[in-house]
Amino acid sequence: MSEKNVRLGIIGLGTQGGMYAGVISEGRVPGMTLGAIADVDPAKKELAAEKHPGVPFYDDHLAMLDSGDVDAVVTTVPHFLHPEMTITAIGKGIHTLTEKPAGVYTKQVEEMNAFAAEHPETTFAIMFNQRTNPVYTDLKALIDSGELGALRHTSWIITTWWRPQGYYDQSEWRATWGGEGGGVLVNQAPHQLDLWQWLCGTPQKVFAKLAFGFRRDIATEDEVNALVDFGDGATGHFMTSTNDIIGTDRLEMLFDKGKIVVDSSKKVTVYRLTEDERALSDTLSMQDVARLFRGEVDPSDTYTVEEKEYESAWGQQHIDVLSNFAAHVNDGTPLIADGAEGINGVRLASGMQLSAWTGREIDLVDYPAEEYLAELNRRIEAEGKFGARS
Amino acid sequence: MSEKNVRLGIIGLGTQGGMYAGVISEGRVPGMTLGAIADVDPAKKELAAEKHPGVPFYDDHLAMLDSGDVDAVVTTVPHFLHPEMTITAIGKGIHTLTEKPAGVYTKQVEEMNAFAAEHPETTFAIMFNQRTNPVYTDLKALIDSGELGALRHTSWIITTWWRPQGYYDQSEWRATWGGEGGGVLVNQAPHQLDLWQWLCGTPQKVFAKLAFGFRRDIATEDEVNALVDFGDGATGHFMTSTNDIIGTDRLEMLFDKGKIVVDSSKKVTVYRLTEDERALSDTLSMQDVARLFRGEVDPSDTYTVEEKEYESAWGQQHIDVLSNFAAHVNDGTPLIADGAEGINGVRLASGMQLSAWTGREIDLVDYPAEEYLAELNRRIEAEGKFGARS
Predict the structure, then answer these.
(1) What is the pLDDT of residue A1?
(2) Beta bridge partners of B8
(3) Model-level pTM?
(4) CATH code for B131-310+345-383?
(5) Residue of A nearest to B305 (CA)
(6) B287 or A244: which leads in pLDDT
(7) Which of A26, A302, B253, B386 is the most interior residue, by most CB within 10 Å?
(8) Whether pLDDT at B1 is above 50
(9) What mean pLDDT do residues A187-195 have?
(10) Taking a contact as any Cβ pair under 8 Å apart, which residues of chain A between 148 and 177 contact chain B?
(11) Does the interface predicted TM-score (ipTM) exceed 0.85?
């Protein structure tokens, strides 16, 4: 490895891989240069030569891994391939930034995580770019500080992932069981599933209603309404879809000592109670309650309201994760998202699918990984386009 | 019955009954006068004499029903009593406006509805006062017009029902299984449960997470997070609690041809698509999709936005229902809320409780009424304060 310079290999020169290659070539990612590009599609060789002259191109990612041209790779390939490519790369001592989602089913992600854990000298990170959005970075710090106390409930309606039919018709694998392993839960919503559990904690159980091919001609889900249990009475609601052209992005979190509402991932309102809500409740006498009902007590005296509007930080997010990945390799800077954390979102997404398929609430702690895989394979086989998974 | 004048008897001179007696005495309810008052509490006799001199007082509602002083009654008494008092009154030919909720368990409400159906000459209505709120009246008309098409999903977060501990400590029966049969679902949220199913349709299934005595020292639920299935892939989310001092009231409904968002039961935003969203989705070519992702297509061209702010209509609502009830008795004006419709909210509330107790999704069409009652009685017996129900 070059000193303080990570030579990144791009596996898959699609939209995402092309964007990463571009920002690295432009020198926008400190501590990182473009080492090589690999793609199985011969047409991409020409594209690479045109856009990145002089950068080695491989039609086989294994050849690139062995070439000595790269210190690290990013896996911008279909979701099912993330775990196996990550295992291969780490096995060769190549630092790996895996794309989200970490995988489709937890069994393969667990194998990846276990393998990576045996190779701590090789960096293993995941592209959860939205964790770098200052909206969520600030909220993560606020919640982790303990100032707001324990979570009571949360709801995230995230339907800004509108995708028209033409989007699905672009490729054979999109929104199929065998090619993608799901719909909105696997492709679009993994960002929010990660942020949600990052902010609120890992859910213990999930019950979900999914509609498959609801308002799109696809095999998988374009409509999701889910309920999770965080334990100790705390619960959460998550709703997403790709069929809402208007789109809502609204996150609410109620805590013992306050409340947070985030609109459009931009406007944050933080309510801070003067003390724990239960203490406030207990100090009111029955006479106070009577006054409250006569409108003589104003509950808004018990809290402050802080509103903050953030600029959109979309363009910078991927660059921030790439820089952080390079900094971790170069000097041990803590990762924004350790690769091993990717399993939480995968368990949640696949748990929602399994719940919808079986009509049962799914235990996410003692998770039925084999049952999920068997159900997924039944759908892959019925679809008949791709091979079953193991 | 006096011609064009309904002499109303109040059963239960509590907060609600006292308010009704007041507005009727002040002549604010056209076609209705205060006929008599009944209350089992001797202290109320004095109160009635002071506030409503000359109005007959009975310590037994049966005596009032037989007195000839009243043409109609309203049942402002604990929820369990609504069905049995309604049956008694209707059996005596007395028009009845039952309070919400219609009851606690569907078995008793079904008996009430069946009995009322056998006596169509006697008016049977229910106090769903929030149906008179112009916010919801206008939305009901819009949705029923079919302009927005079929429902896709909905979410209502209604946590503006803050109740401090002192509220629960006022009476022995509050938020007990035997005295009230539930917490926020039975006392506060029935308004929204009714409005929700009135606007969105009757759910077919429900799965819910309830926390009992979560942040209050009570036996029943002060925290609810529920998921419903309307059939054909349409789903809904309902979240309520009495422990959010800040309070949220936000209703969202997505339809095939538009979307409605209601904030604080006052601000309504209606989005109208130029055509069905699926048709809009289908007309975009793959080239259009590429342009969309490059930011060259603006989806907001496909819809209009109408915002409307309503005045608070709180004070007038009960008067409107009382007037409508009188008008129905006097000249057959259609009821705002037929008494028989009260069962929908009761089935939904008790279905949420049963789901939380059993961990199962509950069928609301083939509803397990006997199982609910058995589970409720188990809790009443364990509580040991009130008798079991049948």
Answers:
(1) 43
(2) B34, B72
(3) 0.95
(4) 3.30.360.10
(5) A246
(6) A244
(7) B253
(8) no
(9) 96
(10) 152-153, 155, 157, 159, 162, 164-167, 169-170
(11) yes
